[in-house]
Amino acid sequence: MKMLSIIIFCLTVFFSYSQEKPNILFIVSEDNGPELGCYGAPVITPHLDNLAKEGVMFRNAYVTQAGCSQSRASIWTGLFPHQNGQIGLATWKYRMYKAETPNLVRSLKDAGYTTGNIGKIHVNPETAFPFDFKAITKSNFKRENMDQYAAEAEKFMTASKKPFFLQINYPDAHAPFLRQVDGLPERPLNGKDVEALPYMAVDNEQLKETTANYYNCMMRLDTYIGELLEALKRSGKYNNTILVYIGDHGADILRGKRTSYEGGVKIPMIIWWKGKILEKIQSEELVSTIDLYPTFLDVAGLVIPEYLPGKSIVPLLKGEPTNWRTYLFTEYHVHSNHNPYPQRTVRDQRFKLIWNPLAGTENPGYAFTLSHTVKISEEELFRVASNHVKEAYLRMKIPPEYELYDLNIDPFELVNLAENEQYADILMELKKQLRTWQKRTSDALIDTTTARVLFERIQKVEIERPRKEVSYFDLMYNKTINWEKK
User: What is the pLDDT of residues 413-436, one digit of tens each?
Assistant: First the structure.
């Protein structure tokens, strides 16, 4: 009898321990900003809307850089691209400084989690992220076998005997914006049903049709997420799972992806955790994807390293008093070798500053987006643009050193206030905050010469995908963060 009691006690402790660490389901969609019903977009997204209603929705969430590889590397390492080295696309052979850089996957594995990834990894070297389980590892921009995402997730979640971390990466809403896939959405939108995305600030039949198909991607994504949630419920682990949803950066459209504008760096972020966090909360706090690594460590009961520039969002989720950030930073370097253009930004709750160290030099990303993505001529663009919108596009084409925007009254960043004396004190303060952050994070682009060197050396590379993996930062940067001694 005594032995039986001991066995029962041990089993109780074991199962109690296993329940202490929640499962983590991390959903990442491609190339979309907060164009969801719950954020006010004219689309039907009931599953994500319901998660927002039952959890916390962040209205001011940002990525570190508006590019797939750069964004993902920041999520996994908790570092800005200039700190981890992944400044451009992995498919163009850009890579992190060191494979040994601590990351989310290794940390959670060490804490007893089973780790899985469905969809592309897209950071070099992939071996830096030792997932226990991987499936559907291609980009899948053709959206083939989409039913397998939830099926593979269910297999992984059900089989796991330990707490799990699963990241699932959906290809929607990456270009091409497919109107329907496997009959989804059931009632697709057409150009006549919508206005063009507002931050483009221009409208014609072509842009309306592009926007409609982008919205169709978002509605289809919501259906797939609904299937995933049903799989989670069938696994029996629904009540002990924290679910985090984000987009990896903004839409591949005018003034979106590959820019430092809000359309590129602002994303949806919804966090749901049954019975553990506040409900029906729409937070206005400035949060970043660099906060996800420390958040997941916090959720898993792990110590958050001091060198990380982000911090855990958990206090915000629980409504606990916390001294949250006043300023948020993003950056840009390069995407593919067609479009290098170093930039740095800082914003507070109202104003945003973009610093262009190559001021007066034409941004090659401008022509690239017009010709390769939206496929609209500058002549047609200017034909449908008002005078102040035309000025905004010309400013994007050949930027001044500073762009200052009042996001309260100008959320689409059309009127530059940097030369307006009325805002001189605000400009000075944001410049000071940006410079302080660059020093704190050992940003080599604090020197405009370095920005010019980076730009010119990338431009000298033949515009085709290099055969050899290389970090162009090796040409002018040293490793910028000493995590090895922390």
Answer: 999 999 999 999 999 999 999 999
Strands (E), 351-445: 351-355, 402-406
Burial (CB count within 10 angstroms: exposed 0-12, middle 13-18, buried 19+), residue 306: exposed
Distance of alpha carbon 153 from alpha carbon 118, whole angstroms: 7
Domain with CATH 3.30.1120.10 in the chain: 329-480
Closest by CA to 256, choosing from 34, 432, 46, is: 34
199 with 255: CB under 8 angstroms? yes
pTM: 0.93
**CA 319, CA 293: separation in Å to the nearest integer?**
20
Task: For domain 23-326, give the fold.
Answer: Alkaline Phosphatase, subunit A (3.40.720)
Residue with tokens 């697709």: 188
Query: In the CATH hierarchy, which top-level class contains the domain 329-480?
Result: alpha beta
And the tokens for 273? 């955790």
pLDDT per residue as tens digits for the range 300-358: 999 999 999 999 999 999 999 899 999 999 999 999 989 999 999 999 999 999 999 99
- Return the ∠ at Cα 269 (arms to 413 and 100), rounded to 5°: 100
